[in-house]
Design brief:
Layout lengths: L1 H29 L3 E6 L5 E4 L1 H7 L3 H4 L13 H14 L1 E10 L5 E13 L2 E10 L1 H48 L9 H26 L2 H5 L5 E4 H16 L5 E5 L5 E5 L1 H17 L6 E9 L2 E8 L33 H11 L3 E6 L6 E11 L4
Parallel strand pairs: 7-9
Antiparallel strand pairs: 1-2, 1-5, 3-4, 4-5, 6-8, 8-12, 9-10, 10-12, 11-12
Length: 384
């Protein structure tokens, strides 16, 4: 009885093995990747599937019993031998982009993955070969399209910035002309003219700073950063004063709420002020007449989070992934007449990055408008 049971077990195992071999063969024959089976000792090809025959143009008989570097597709014999030796030692090999040549002489790019495993008591090597020529072509086309679009936006932005430079220059020239006239013809005092010129020069400086972000290298910009201790509340107070002037035309109220006292940020004052002002300017640009912008702040686990909340048009799903990209100008149909060049939020992102912080944008839940959140590392100190 025991002998019969062992025979039954042996028969079942044999059937299972045959079923497994049939399934493997079916997968091998119908696979949409090229497959080569190699002898792990000699590198001779013991099997090749139909897809590989079609991909490289060689018949099965032209593969079988040849070493892999003896097939014309693998032109570099030395490299193929070195790769096989590495595969013998490590049991695995991968090339993300391997050029092969078809029998007709056409070059194709493939993803080549090889690994070794035991079949019974024999160690074999299986090579999977996937044609990525079309994928590479599509990726290249997308990259070219992206670079062309970036270049187009860059040229357009520089043109817009150049146009924006004309207004303050014209005002400076006008004030200089007035100051040079006699006092009888010019009722405006020289001091008043100089004050107006000073304002426009500062405006020009801000425009040129934005332009420098287009042309300067990252390390050059970082070298300009001057770190110091900054009282968060006083920083926000200064930004509020400047923001209210910008919001006057649209009658948008700019307020700050829940700002914790005695919080000292360590950072560059000019950059952090520009960061907050750019967020406020963005909320005004996309804000509604008689709307509002609110600055909120909270402290947790060594970070201070500053939220700039508005009740404007919000951010479309299409624009959301791109809001911090250079030269990107979202929602052009709703955009105000301001000559935006798509650098404001990119500058915000850069400033946050150099202060080891994070920035994000979301739409308000169940309400119109958006929330821009900046999280920066802080140091708690008593501000006297």
């Amino acid at each position: 009885m025991k002998k019969k049971s062992e025979n039954e077990i042996e028969l079942i195992l044999k059937q299972k093995l045959e079923e497994s071999e049939v399934k493997y063969r079916r997968l091998f024959e119908t696979a949409h990747d090229g497959i080569l089976i190699l002898d792990s000792e000699t590198a001779q090809i013991t099997d090749a599937n139909p897809f590989l025959e079609k991909l490289l143009g060689y018949s099965k008989s032209e593969f079988i019993n040849k070493k892999i570097w003896e097939v014309g597709a693998f032109k570099n014999i030395g490299a193929s031998k070195d790769a096989f030796e590495l595969l013998q030692n490590q049991g695995f090999l991968r090339y993300d982009n391997l050029p092969l040549e078809t029998k007709s002489g056409r070059l194709i790019e493939v993803e080549f993955v090889a690994n070794s495993y035991m079949v019974g008591k024999t160690l074999v090597i299986q090579c999977n070969i996937r044609d990525i020529t079309e994928r590479k072509r599509i990726d290249l086309a997308k990259e070219i399209e992206r670079l062309l679009e970036e270049e187009r936006l860059k040229v357009e932005s520089i043109a817009n910035l150049t146009h924006e430079l004309r207004t303050p220059l014209a005002i400076v020239k006008g004030n200089v002309d007035l100051a040079m006239q006699s006092s009888k013809k010019n009722p405006k005092s020289s001091k008043s003219a100089l004050r107006a010129i000073d304002y426009e020069v500062k405006h020009l400086s801000r425009i040129l700073f934005d332009l420098s972000l287009i042309t300067s290298k990252e390390w050059e910009l970082k070298n300009r950063v001057v770190y110091e201790k900054i009282d968060l509340k006083s920083l926000i107070r200064i930004v509020l004063v400047r923001g209210k002037i910008l919001a006057h035309k649209k009658n948008i109220s700019i307020t700050a709420k829940l700002i914790p006292p005695n919080i000292t940020l360590v950072g560059d004052r000019a950059y952090l002020e520009k960061m907050l002002l750019n967020l406020i300017k963005n909320s005004i640009t996309y804000g509604n007449e008689d709307g509002y912008t609110t600055i909120l702040a909270k402290q947790s686990k060594g970070f201070i989070t500053i939220d700039v909340v508005d009740d404007g048009i919000g951010i479309s799903d299409e624009d959301m992934p791109h809001v911090f990209e250079r030269f990107y100008r979202g929602d052009k149909l709703h955009r105000s007449n301001e000559n935006s060049v798509g650098l404001g939020l990119a500058i915000v992102k850069w400033i946050v990055d150099i202060h080891s912080g994070t920035v994000s944008a979301t739409n308000r839940k169940n309400k119109k408008g958006s929330v821009f959140s900046v999280s920066l590392p802080v140091k708690i100190e008593s501000v006297k």
